[in-house]
Amino acid sequence: MTARCGTHFRGWPSSFRRIRSGAALLLLGAAVFCNGPAPRAAASAPLEYDVKAAFLLNFTKFVEWPASAFASPDAPLNICILGGDPFGRAIDQLVEGESVNQHRITVERIRSDQPKACQVLFVGNGPIPAGFSAANPAVLTVGEGEDFIRQGGVIAFVIDNRRVRFDISVKAATNAGLKLSSKLLSVARSVDK
Amino acid sequence: MPIRQKLMLIVMATTTVALVLAGISILFADFFLFRGYLKNDLSALSRIIADNTTAPIEFDDPGAAAETLGTLRARPHVITACVFRNDGRLFAQYRRAHATAACPAPRSAEDIRFGGGFLTVSHPIVFKSKQIGTFVLVYDLGEIVERVELYGATVVSVFVLATLVAVLLSSRLRLLIATPIVELARVTTRVSQQRDYSIRARKFSGDELGTLVDAFNEMLAGIQSRDSELRKALLAREAALDDAQNARASLEATLENVARLNVELRMSNESLARSNEDLERFAFIASHDLQEPLRMISIYSQLLVRRFAHSIDPQAVSFVDNIEAGTKRMRELLADLLAYAEIGARNEDVSEPVDLNLVVEKVRQNLALAIAESGATISVAPLPLIRGFESHFTPLFQNLISNAIKYRSQQTPKIDITTGGTNGYIRICVADNGIGIPPQYYSKIFVAFKRLHGQRIPGTGIGLAICQRVVERYGGRIWVESEVGSGSNFIFTLPVGLIVR
């Protein structure tokens, strides 16, 4: 794949290069940028979630958590994946060795009835489990689809013009005690104040 | 060129130089300052834009990056700006309207460089201490040219304005500087043309020009006083010259008079000499021709006595004797007179050496009877040989010796003839021990017919006159030194040039 598309590939954001296995497989990017026949079947799902995994990691760099969100100044920044895991091993490889403001980034897969110390909570297509917010006040909730914002989520992945984009709810972030970088807002598809 | 124009020129030149220098310095300073400012400005701008493109790169959103780059529209000199990914691929680009320029390749480090009329900025895009791309910007330096043009226009307008102000100022400057100098020049010209040193320059100010005017006026005053002194001295000299001329004229007149008098004197001298000659000639002729009738009287009176001695009255004889005595005396007088006249009359005769010793010897013989009668002794020192006439010196010595015998005292006459010499003259003295002569007669005795002793001692009264005439004829002098009762000393001198031996 890399060999066949390499000369036409427009390059990845720096974080994407960390994805060794998929070799920078963008969901729609492959179809748009590669003239050759795209690899079929299940290949598309991992590509989309590779991008989303990278975005998840990048979000941590544009969001500021209150100090109370961490047990200690050098406690890890935990990205929790609720329910079914669409990322697979790719996200583990991506965050390996990464850290933000002395917080090592870790990935943990959790169930809804299993409250954990999470700074980022990816809920997938599901809703935010009731009571989770109470246990984790300063948590960046990330979900799928435009409706996720209406359900009280902070960031919602959307597919726009065959590209992975995201919507942001500043209100939800403020409620959660999070500060979002204006740069992050500038690249969001839409911002719900 | 008049000083007013020079002043104007100086003002203009100063203004021009100052403005041009200031303009050039401003231009250069601005050029470099602006380059520096531009560098800093574009560096900061690049940093901001690079920072703002981190999120688009991180979230792979070229549209957002292009939007960020689009803010560069506010800077019209930005031709193009690009965001490159780390692998060198173009992520987003901004182009100025109608521009087709491509971005140069990104450089690894932050880099700002001028070249080809452009300023190229290459700025790394760093996010969370990692370089995620490069921002490249190309800036059109036409702005600098615009600024240079703007400054140039400013300098030119300031120059025009300054020129106008300088022209206006120069009229005031003319009053301050040119007017005193022009006045000074005018006065100088007037003074030199009219030679009028009473003119004074007007003083306008108390500065150096005022000092100059004062000094000039002082100088004029000095010249004026010296001029008047000179004039006075000149007048005095002219007066003195007039006096001198007058004196000269009178002197010339005097000289003329003297010359005229000289001529008259010479003429009278000549007539005097002529009459003197006539007189001498007359005396000579008379004394010579009178001897003949005198002889007749003497002969016939003797004949009368001899032939009629027995018949005539003895008283008549005595009368005839008196006639005889008178004629004898007359003869003697005439002889002396003739001798006296001869001395002057025979000038033309050739002179010959005369031995005065022989002359004295001859005189001794002539006077032998008188010498014998009186018993006189005559001692004679050796006398010189003189160029002259024997007929002159014989009467000289004979008269002196006979006088010494004639005017003897009770003593036997003793006559000493001695010689001496002084100052180019030989002196011959004839001294006696006779009766002597009172001093008041020392000069009278040399005048003809002046006799000291009247009829008591016989004599013609011409002897000493003959002596003086002889001595003076040879250029000598004769005088007497005497003491009454002790004797007389007759002294005469003759020029040494006459001496032959």
Summarize the structure.
The complex is a heterodimer of chains A (193) and B (501). Chain A has 193 residues and is an alpha/beta fold.
Descriptive report:
The complex is a heterodimer of chains A (193) and B (501). Chain A is α/β, with parallel strands linked by helices and 193 residues long. Chain A has one domain. Chain A is built from 8 helices and 10 strands. Chain A has helices at 2-5, 29-33, 44-62, 89-95, 132-135, 147-150, 170-175, 182-187, and strands at 63-64, 77-82, 99-100, 103-110, 120-124, 140-144, 155-160, 163-169, 179-180, 190-192. In chain A, the strands form 2 sheets. Chain A has an 8-stranded mixed beta sheet. Chain A has a two-stranded antiparallel ribbon with strand order 1-9. In chain A, strand 5 (120-124), helix 5 and strand 6 form a beta-alpha-beta unit. Chain A starts with a helix and ends with a strand. Residues 1-45 of chain A have low confidence and may be disordered. Chain B is of the alpha+beta class. Among the domains of chain B are: 3-165, 2-Layer Sandwich (Beta-Lactamase), CATH 3.30.450.20; 350-498, Histidine kinase-like ATPase, C-terminal domain (Heat Shock Protein 90), CATH 3.30.565. Chain B has 10 helices and 12 strands. Chain B has helices at residues 3-52, 54-58, 62-70, 142-194, 208-307, 314-345, 356-366, 368-374, 390-406, 463-473, and strands spanning 78-85, 90-95, 111-115, 118-127, 130-140, 352-355, 377-380, 385-388, 414-422, 425-431, 478-483, 487-495. In chain B, strand 1 (78-85) and strand 2 form a beta hairpin. In chain B, helix 5 (208-307) packs antiparallel against helix 6 (314-345) and helix 7 crosses helix 9 (390-406). The two termini of chain B are 104 Å apart. The mean pLDDT of chain B is 86. The chains are: A alpha/beta (193), B alpha+beta (501). Chains A and B meet through helix 3 and helix 8 of A and helix 2 of B.
